[in-house]
Design brief:
By secondary structure, this protein is an alpha+beta fold. It has helices spanning about 10-40, 40-45, 50-60, 60-75, 80-85, 90-95, 110-120, 125-135, 160-175, 185-200, 215-220, 235-245, 270-280, 320-330, and strands spanning about 140-145, 150-155, 205-215, 225-230, 245-255, 260, 265, 295-300, 315-320, 330-335, 345-350, 355-360, 375. Strands 3, 4, 5, 6 and 7 form a five-stranded mixed sheet that branches. It has a two-stranded antiparallel ribbon with strand order 1-2. The protein has three domains: about 10-125, no CATH class; about 140-200, no CATH class; about 205-375, no CATH class.
Length: about 375
Amino acid sequence: MKWQGHTTDQLEQVLAAVDERIAQARGIEIEILEELDRRQTWWSDGSQSMIEWTAARLDCGRDTAKKLVTAMRRTADRPHLREALADGRSFDRIEAVARLKDEDSTLDHLDIAAVRRTVAKRRDIYERDETRTTDDRYLVMQPSLDKSWWKLTGGLDGVAGSVVDNALTELADRLPDLPDGTRPGAGWRRATALYELVSGGASPEAHVTVFVDAVDAVASNGRRSMHLEAGPRIGVKALSAIVCNSVSEVTVNAEDGIPMRYGRLTRTIPPTLRRAILATTDGHCAIDGCDSTYRVEIHHRLPWSHGGMTDPENLVPLCWFHHHIAVHERGFEVFNDLTNGGRLRLRRSTRELGHGLSCRFTDAETPPEGTSVGVGTQP
């Protein structure tokens, strides 16, 4: 490359000179756009606005076109800003300063980010603007075709946005590191915080119906043909989480499509046993080093999908994070660390949830409370 023989100082000087020429070119563009706008060229060409026309003619994004047209109109009666562009001053700086009604020479000592923050703080907020922002609140949840993934987009007014942002940030900051010492990024933590927040302060008793196509589920080790009543497809990990701590039933279709058996709604963990298990740790999470009492739930150490039973020896109280995030989402398992007095700790699971998937039912038509009616591996 032709720049390899240049020093760093030389490259910086060339870069600055190029940026000056770009700013000068932007100044010329603004002057031309002003004349075209005066001639209403965009209207005669059938465009909806000057911004739309500019984006099409310059083959640029709408954001770039909007900046050019807005800067053109805001500097129309401020020739000194046009002169600054002709002198090679940064277009982004001139575009930001042009948003202010009154000039402020102190902005010359600020970087672009600081200038934009200052301009934003000085912007007039009219009552109609406040009404518009509250009326324009929206939230769109867009599922994938099989509802295995959801995309959220939306917008909030300043007050509502601050409340939501502060709540998610505070809750996200309280999420502990994963058992292996890693800490997921801020985006993951905030999304997880939102999930935790809307789940409610108490662990809800979820009534869940799972439909399974036996042939495809077994052939794919549970990677296909399992879905909830509402439509979303699930995998083996999700199924394990569902039957671990909820009221659930499973309908399995045989090869001919006829339901093989309807499992009745069965409480996985009876209330009396749940209270007894919680009492062993005074309502705290049982994981070594965790003293959380937030939404403590009862977890099957050996999952139902691997033949685990609802017996006290197989049950352990875990907080929401360790139960849902560490165990069921991240694949950790609870074990007794014999090198430290048998303390309960977490490690990467040695089991493959999808291995040897088969359909398993109790012989009784109405199994006793706490008996599994589900899909899993034979013990």
